[in-house]
Design a protein that fits this description.
Strand content: 25-35%
Distance between the termini: 45 Å
Number of helices: 6
Structural class: alpha+beta
Largest sheet: 6 strands, antiparallel
Oligomer: single chain
Amino acid sequence: MNSINPPEIGPRLQAHRKELKLTLNDLATMSGVSRSMLSEIERGNANPTYGTLWHLTRALNIDLNSLVSGASEERSDRIDLQPGNMTPTIRSADGSCTMQILSPAGMVSMIEWYLLSFEREGKLVSDPHGAGTIEHLHCTQGEIVVRSAGNEMIVRAGETARYAADVPHSLTSVGAGSVGARAFLVVASAEVGTNTLRASIRPK
């Protein structure tokens, strides 16, 4: 598993934690990273994996690239580039779908976007998200069956589906060929979008 060990990581992490007036126990509870591991990271005695840093930055609501590089998150005229090896990647429970997290951690409560790569007949099954959440799926390769509550539809390359995600929902790669589907997925909370859109796609 990839790890990173620049000496500045520990002090930066500690500074963000103290700025939010969080104890090590608080951050451990919020991130799922043990208190002892947090202590070792802050003192520079442990090499955190990218996965560990991802959980910590989500808990602290800061950008992963900013933590690693020390770059300011203040708006500027420069272009902020996130290297490919710094893009957080997670897999579905059965491993048949890979999700690259493209949205910055600071927007997680409002909107998130992902690049999805399915194995042939791969599946991504989700429990209901928060009330009013809508997902926007744009298929770029293959075909994907979208299921939202009792509704079902096939989405083909070039097409975009929008559906309620505050109910049980799933995505399944289908169609001929030896490779699975690929798609961009945007997850928008109730604070994003319009009431008209939500009403139009609410399951009957």
